Amino acid sequence: MKRISLFLMLAVLAPVAALAQQTPPPQQASQSATSAQADANPVSSAVRGLLERQSKNILAAVDEMPADKFTYRPTPAQITFGHLVMHMAGSNFHLCAAISGMEAPKTEELKETDPKEKLAAALKSSFDFCTTSAGKNRRFEIRRGGADARKFQPDARGRDDSAYG
């Protein structure tokens, strides 16, 4: 009985083991090389993945918001939705330029009262710039030793001055 069970187990596992030893098709081999290259810098890979995922979500949310609600303010002390979109677009240009070392494209100054189409286009453009700068700069990390790198270092109080210019 034990011999039959052992024989059946070997008969089932042998083809699986043989398949595991085969070389992958060319398409899978190139995907493995790409993933190995992406894993060379896991922080950069994580930033690129986060950028891709969040840009889709944020742009979809902006598209869903009706144009007349861009002036919506949850409480009198909070910013409007239009101001939030304007802020995200400006932040994307500033941060992605600083991280990648590329110069941000010149854009028209936005106002929170601008129409939805203009704010949404600016936000999409900012995400496109971030995606482009992340793709062109292999490492997509803060440049060491330059003035830009110092902007992201905390001061003596532990504050990050990157948001303050």
Describe this structure in words.
With 165 residues, the chain is mainly α. The protein has a domain of 111 residues. It is built from 6 helices and no strands. It is extended and about 75 Å long. The N and C termini lie far apart (78 Å). The C terminus is likely disordered.
Strand content: under 5%
Largest sheet: none
User: Which spans have pLDDT < 50 for at least 5 consecutive residues?
Assistant: 142-147, 161-165
Approximately how much helix is present in the residues? 55-70%
Any idea what the radius of gyration is?
Answer: 25 Å
Q: What does the overall shape look like?
A: extended
Helical stretch count? 6
Overall strand count? 0
Mean pLDDT: 74
* CA(first)-CA(last) distance: 78 Å
Order of helices and strands: HHHHHH
Structural class: mainly alpha
Give descriptors for this structure:
mainly alpha, 165 residues, 0% strand
Strand-helix topology:
Layout: H1 2-21, H2 26-38, H3 42-64, H4 81-100, H5 116-136, H6 147-151
Helix pairs in contact: 3-5, 4-5
Condensed summary:
The protein has 165 residues and is mainly α.
